[in-house]
Amino acid sequence: MEPTAVERLNRVLDRLPRDTLHLGARTVPAFRSIGILGFHLAVLAAVLTAIRAGVPVLEAVGISATAGASFFAFGLLRRAMTGRENLVLLEHVWVALGSVALYLWAAGGPVLPGLDVLSAALCVFLAAGRVGCLIAGCCHGHPASIGPVYPAAAGLPDRLHGVRLFPVQLVESAGLLGIGAIGFVLAGSRPGTATVWVLTAYATVRFGVEALRGDRRPNVVGVSVPRAMAVMQLLAVAESARRQRRPVKSRRRLLRCGTQHLTTAGWAASHQPIRITPHPRPGRPGTTASWPPPEAYS
Fold it and tell me: What is the CA 264 to chain-centroid distance, rounded?
């Protein structure tokens, strides 16, 4: 009997989960390697967006380096503060925006065109990160008829062994690529338009895909933290847009206002008293899985 389209798709998805990739004679960590590839693709996207927006290419390289450094620095800081490694995409977006805004301000260059470059490039990086999530088994969806079946080494709960999980990571990845493509087009228009678009669209998508997530979600008063952060991001963008319509002395003041809103929201979200215990590695009590646990990326 000829397999159906869903069965063929599931066969493809079943081949994706893994903890390593083979590059010739070398074996490299899959999750980390996809992240590195995503960063290089994001740098390329930043350069192309800079050309379209009239931003010097050298400045685009500086923006990429600053954003990359902020990602790792904030990750280390968060791990030192919480005692565990937990990457929350929205937090890193906010930190990257603040870091790059500070870099552009210190360099004396135009801030809003630079943030447009960053916004489009971030979409590429985050989309690659979600592909890494799909391969690693974190940030998975609910049980469904379409999706990969993860091996026991992925560290998922026993109830999910042998169960197909909806590939919500691919949905978010595709959405990010679409958002980034429109952001690239908007980068050639009024400075700041692409940034507003990316922040608004990504917050909307992130709010929606939270309903498709099947992993354990940290929450406050019944609302998942990422959803609350998405609302905070929308409110910060709306407030910045409202202030932009008022007579202001400079666009830097507008940027400073938006950055302050996001920074305050990020601090509040990251300091909630949330405790999540990592899943144990099957067969070895008291140890964690070799792959990123389901809470490692959010």
Answer: 19
Q: Note the pLDDT tens digit of each residue in 176-224.
A: 999 999 999 999 899 999 999 999 999 999 999 999 999 888 788 888 8
How many helices and strands, by DSSP H and E, does the chain display? 9, 6
Copy the structure tokens of residue 24: 């010739």
Specify whether the CB–CB gap between 168 and 34 falls below 8 A: no
Rounded-to-integer distance, Cα 219 and Cα 275, Å: 10
- Asked, for residue 293, whether it belongs to a domain, the answer is no
Task: Domain count for the chain, please give it.
Answer: 1
| The token pair that represents 213 in the structure block | 């997530």
Q: Residue 14 domain-assigned?
A: no
Structure tokens at 143: 């049980």
Regions in the chain scoring below 50 on pLDDT: 247-251, 254, 261-295
pTM (2 decimals)?
0.80
Domain that holds residue 188: 27-271
Query: Would you say residue 276 lies in a domain?
Result: no
Q: What single-letter amino acid sits at 146?
A: I
Q: What whole-number distance in Å separates Cα of residue 149 and Cα of residue 266?
A: 34
Cβ-contact 128, 41 below 8 angstroms: yes
Buried b (16+ CB within 10 A) or exposed e, 226-262: bbbbbebbbebbeebeeebeeeeeeeeebbbbbbebb
Identify the residue whose tokens are 């993860």: 150
3-20 burial: b if 16+ Cβ within 10 Å, else e:
eeeeeeebeebeebbbbe
Per-residue pLDDT tens digits for 28-46:
999 999 999 999 999 999 9
Of 109, 18, 14, the residue nearest 56 (C-alpha)? 109
Measured between alpha carbons, how far is 296 from 159 in angstroms, rounded to an integer? 19
Which of 279, 276, 275, 277 lies closest to 292, judged by CA? 279
Q: Is residue 172 part of a domain?
A: yes
Backbone angles phi, psi at 20, to 5 degrees: -135, 160
